[in-house]
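Operator note (shift B, R.M.): manual run for Ig-like domain-containing protein requested after the automated queue skipped it. Running by hand, logging everything below so the morning shift can see what happened. Input copied straight from the record, untouched. If output looks odd, do not overwrite the archive copy; leave it for review.
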Amino acid sequence: MVDPLRGVSLTPNGTITRIESETQSFQCSARSLPIASLSWRLNGSLLPASSLPVTTNDTITSFYTYTARKADHGKKLSCTAIHISASFTEDALLNVLYRPIVTVYPNFNPFRVLENTRNIQLACIVSDANPAVTSFKWNKNYSTISREANYTIPTVNRLHAGNYTCRADNSVGDSDLSAAIQLDVLYGAEVLTINKTEVAEGTQLLITCDGQSNPSVTDNDVIWTKQNNNTFSMKGKQLVVRNVNRVDSGTYMCSVMTELIPSIGQSLNVTMRTTVDVDVLYRPSVTIYPNYTMYNVIENTSSLKLRCTVVDANPAATSYRWYTNGSLIDGTAASFTVENVRRSHTGRYTCIATNNVGSSDLSAAVQLIVMCKFE
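Run finished. Output pasted below as returned.
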């Protein structure tokens, strides 16, 4: 007996809406004699049935359990019945709902921007979603800062630096967190003020020039020069002069040159400068006056004055010492006076001057010779 195939029944059919990862059971039946064969296809590709078909009298029934996948959205799940020379197919259109997928723009990482750049815009771009996105959320360092698709910074300052991420959501749920935009705000060096430096002659002069900048200041960015000295130039954060000499006193200039290279646009060279006064301190150098090697004086001369003259000192001399024949004598002023000169005053006179750096070397000696007066 032959009972021709008159059609196939797919339940459910039409448009089937499921959220990604949800399952849906389908049943396909056909009546005929002999029994028809049933097959499942997804957009034309053959699928295995979830179980063996069930036959009762002239009816065959097959079952298929579908798990919703985002990639299947818009595809057709079909069941086909074949009987002798006839075949029938019924379809179900898959409407798979899934959370949004987002990316961010600009897609530089880090995204380098010059300080004071205006109207920087970060965009949260939905590359895929079903259904459409209903809201957005921007975070900076995990704190919410906006609920718009685009986040605009009117004027960039260094406080805007940080990691920016976005999310989008629809009726299914929130997207995964986007990749982060690391906003890196570039600015030239703000050179720190350097106080006047005093250093003792013969020691080492060491001054550091530094400042806040992004990128950070390196030794290659810093050059030291000296006012009124076109030949002096030293590279590096530290100005180092070993065995410093009084001629090293003066005004030094630290120049910090930083190249700022943004991700978009032209690079910018920024130079900042500061100066520092260096004062080299040194012991006095002295000479004695009168500057006779042999100073002949007649006995009983009412008074004789010797002067310890400071040729150079920094700072000024604060005290003096006088010596006769190498022995300390009573006298702490720049001048030493001998009253009523006697033969006992004969000898070699020298002096020393002292400041807060130290004492001078002994002056050249004056040999005082007291001559007798014959009557």
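Quick read of the result: Residues 202 and 243 are 4 Å apart (CA to CA). The two ends are 181 Å apart (CA to CA).
Leaving this for review. - R.M.
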